[in-house]
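Input for the complex:
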Amino acid sequence: MLFYVARRLLTAFITILVVVILAGVLIHVVPGDPITAMLAQSGSADADDIARLTAQYGLDQPVWKQALLYAGNALQGDLGTTIRGGEPVAELLLDRLPNTIALAVAGLGTALVLGIPMGFIAAVNRGRAADFAVMLIAILGVSIPGFWMGLTFIQVFSLHLGWFPVAGTSARNIVLPALTLGVVHSALVARMTRSALVDILNEDYIRTARARGLREHQVLLVHAMRPAMISVVTVVGLVFAHLLGGQVITENVFSWNGIGRLAIQAMLQRDYPLVQGFIVIFATSIVLVTTALDLLYGLLDPRVRRR
Amino acid sequence: MTDTTTNHRPRRLPAALRQWNIAVGALILGIVVLAAILAPWIAPYDPFKMASGPRLTGPSAAHWFGTDELGRDLFSRVLLGARLSLGIGFAAVAVGLLFGVTFGMIIAFCPERVKALLLRIVDVVYSFPDTLLALALVAFMGPGVENATIAIAISLIPFYARVTYGLAAVERAKPYVEAAQIAQAAPARIMRIQVLPNILQSLIVIGSIGFSSAILSAAGLSFLGLGVQPPSPEWGSILASGRNYISRAPWILIFPGLAICLTVLSFNLIGDGIRDLTDPKSRRRRS
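Predicted:
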């Protein structure tokens, strides 16, 4: 087990390192000179400024050196400063991290609370109308763009019914964005729960349990649901990563004061250091969550450790 | 051997159409594609012309989907938007598939150590959600149709490469590939002539999954102002420019959104249907 944990942590570290280096190199995707492009946004640009900033961001160095420089600084918690205002990127992002985490957790929770029962109902009624209805809802769910669902929720629940404020960042405001993320991703959870449960319900030990005269709800909830949940845990990481992707857009729709909203502002203003920092923070969160879930899975299922 | 294939072929098509999801998906997609092709001829108004009618009027006989904040005809704009959305989706999937399949194949035929390293890199990029990857790339390349398409294409590559690798690795272990290797066929030739035809069917399924995610990403990017720029009537950008008027004119929200949903739904239905047909597990379940 110890070896397994050590190996997973090492892989996670290497993955984060690769992402940080990639983020450092990404500035070279900018067509032309990135410094000129950035300064063009803020108006004034003379030769001195360009030379000073080029040196400050290390852009006069070879690419590999820049990437290592960026990675070295990033690992020490220094993600550079923003073009506008010259504030430290890491601080700006970390300030908003709690809001983003709160929304992600609320969204994931909603997705699980909606998705698991849906998948359960579908699997238990396999081939019947209920199964068909749930799967239809699920496929509709993955087909709806999150931002459109968000706008529709605002239209119905905020503007029409007046139940929730349109935008902002407070406990009351979290309901609609969390619901948006939850509904979209519950479809994924429902499909995964259903397929895991359908496989398990075909197992011999379920027939044995029924033959032993156990009550049906006991068979379903205890004997079938428990192992099914283990397979669901493994895909929660996937759902979470996907959810973080959708969250960037959702935060913008609801003006939720998180990292995603800051990132889009930075992208529109071409504040490249801030965008790089955003990539580093988001990728790190995804790697940390998937690693934690992998470790949990290893704990639940000893076979995984030996792989 | 030849007998079974000839027996099977004529049965394939009706089976595919009997699959309800493929039938419904194909029907919706057919309508959208037709609308995209015929848009310039069937659009009742010039989609760019302001004040084709009064501003922000609801659906009526003259303006089926109503008008937007500049008095442009929404029906004409949504029709023309089909061209942009499908065009971006198609281009992105084509480029993504080309590179993804090539990379996946090459990885599958690499020596063990190189393979492990390359897979690791693909996995790292793949763990990043595709919408985010596209967003990050566009942020650096700059907004616009071409850049958005390229970014979405690149964001699809890891997914296609990963799946192709999985499929090709299975094929590689089979005797017919080994036979070809013993016959000293060049790896590139084995990939193209032996392996590719055998995984083509599965590639069609993942192709359609990529399509739906490409269209969603394109709409999302345009909505955020990083993809198609106004006044071009991409569905996401129509939603972006109309979002401040949704309380007065909900139709600006409803119709472009429905267009996105139905198009994405059609690809998802077709993908699901083909999977049902080809996945032996679900075939067993149906019988």
